[in-house]
Design goal:
With 381 residues, the chain is α/β, with parallel strands linked by helices. The chain contains eleven helices and eleven strands. The protein has a six-stranded mixed beta sheet with strand order 5-4-3-6-7-10, sandwiched between helices.
Length: 381
């Protein structure tokens, strides 16, 4: 039990003082006064006599007030109870309550590269694109950790948080199914380092909000850099490096996509044109088709700096997804309660009591008024 004044402590204290004063005044006025004894008559011719002898009328004490009658005590008690009840209501008696929801203490951050090079056709022997492999691995991660909270960070010409931490599995599945490469005409080159500032800020904020949670980071990319080092320079200017993120990461993996031979990439216009009808992306300033070669060395370096395992994925003879999705649930997964504490006021019982006391007071006033009218009528006859 605690108190949260409805209108602030100053007003509650002021009302309490006014109420106490009103009760004391009411008690004083209800006390009957003993009548002063009549003075002895002054003999004829003694009006100009000297001072009244000791023990005379001048030395008599002022009239004293008699104790309250039973009915007057009842009135004072009722009005005192009413004042106390109203003051308690203004003081706001309340208890704490929590809007709770059960969540997992495992947070999964999916960092997904969707630059144009991820559309390279060197997945599963040329039967699909790297993004096909990404979608399959994302689904495996999601299914392996059904109780976790997921956040999705997408990398293309910019780094953006596509979905904040959420247990909305349907939203995660929907995002995975609709994953596409960036629109080719908007591409400004690719760089995994472009994700560094956003990922650092996201993990730092998460650690401050829930330090007891376990954070798993999965980076899905081909590691290719085609922005002339702009992303790396921006991260360096902000003083952020992959090694700085290691203390914030409890697990996960770096997944690299593509083959050493690389593959060609088709354009994407963001419309409904079938992918196999889109032209291939050309080498800048040339007519030859561009070929994307994954940078496995860059991805391995990132994995080492983060303290995560690295897996190269090409759709042929890959490690099973269980290699990077198996999590020791007993060790890092538990039910946690996350909620906002709020106050629940308990004024309704006092409101009922105040209503009963006011009804009683009103009935007593009506009876008093009727009695006064009866005495007035009787005295006028």
């Amino acid at each position: 039990m605690t108190f949260h004044p409805l209108l602030g402590w100053p007003l509650a204290i002021l009302v309490a003082l006014i109420g106490i004063g009103a009760v004391v005044l009411n008690w004083w006025r209800l006390r009957p006064v003993r009548p002063r004894p009549r003075a002895a008559p002054v003999p004829h011719g003694r009006r100009d006599a000297g001072p009244t002898p000791p023990g005379g009328e001048a030395d008599r004490p002022l009239p004293a007030r008699r104790p309250l009658s039973r009915s007057a005590r009842l009135v004072v008690a009722r009005r005192t109870a009413l004042v106390v009840t109203l003051v308690l209501m203004l003081a706001g008696p309340s208890t704490y309550q929590y809007d709770q929801r059960v969540t997992s203490t495992v947070e999964v951050y999916l960092v997904v590269d969707r630059t144009g090079s991820m559309a390279a056709e060197d997945w599963a022997g040329g039967a699909g694109t790297r993004l096909d492999g990404v979608r399959a691995d994302l689904e495996a991660i999601r299914k392996a950790l059904p109780e976790a909270r997921f956040s999705i960070l997408a990398l293309d010409s910019t780094a953006a948080r596509e979905m904040p931490l959420s247990t909305d599995i349907n939203a995660v599945d929907s995002w995975i199914k609709t994953l596409r490469q960036e629109v080719t005409s908007r591409s400004t080159g690719s760089s995994l380092a472009r994700m560094l500032p956003l990922l650092n800020a996201t993990l730092t904020e998460a650690e401050q909000v829930a330090p007891q949670d376990a954070r798993l980071v999965y980076i899905l990319s081909d590691g290719e850099t085609t922005d002339d080092g702009a992303g790396a320079k921006d991260a360096a200017s902000q003083g952020v490096a992959w090694k700085d993120l290691a203390p914030l990461v409890d697990g996960g993996a770096v997944l690299g996509y593509g083959t050493a031979q690389g593959g060609r990439m088709r354009e994407y216009d963001g419309g409904t044109t079938p992918a196999d009808q889109m032209p291939y992306i050309k080498e800048e300033g040339q007519t030859a088709d561009a070929v994307s070669i994954p940078d496995a060395q860059e991805l391995q370096t990132v994995a080492t700096d983060l303290g995560l395992p690295y897996y190269q994925r090409d759709g042929e003879g890959d490690d099973p997804t269980s290699a990077f999705t198996s999590v020791d649930v007993e060790q890092i997964l538990s039910d946690g309660h996350h909620g906002k504490r709020s106050s629940r006021y308990l004024t309704w019982p006092l409101a009922l009591l105040a209503f009963a006391l006011m009804t009683w007071e009103a009935a007593a006033l009506v009876r008093s008024d009727i009695e006064v009218r009866r005495l007035v009528r009787a005295g006028g006859r």
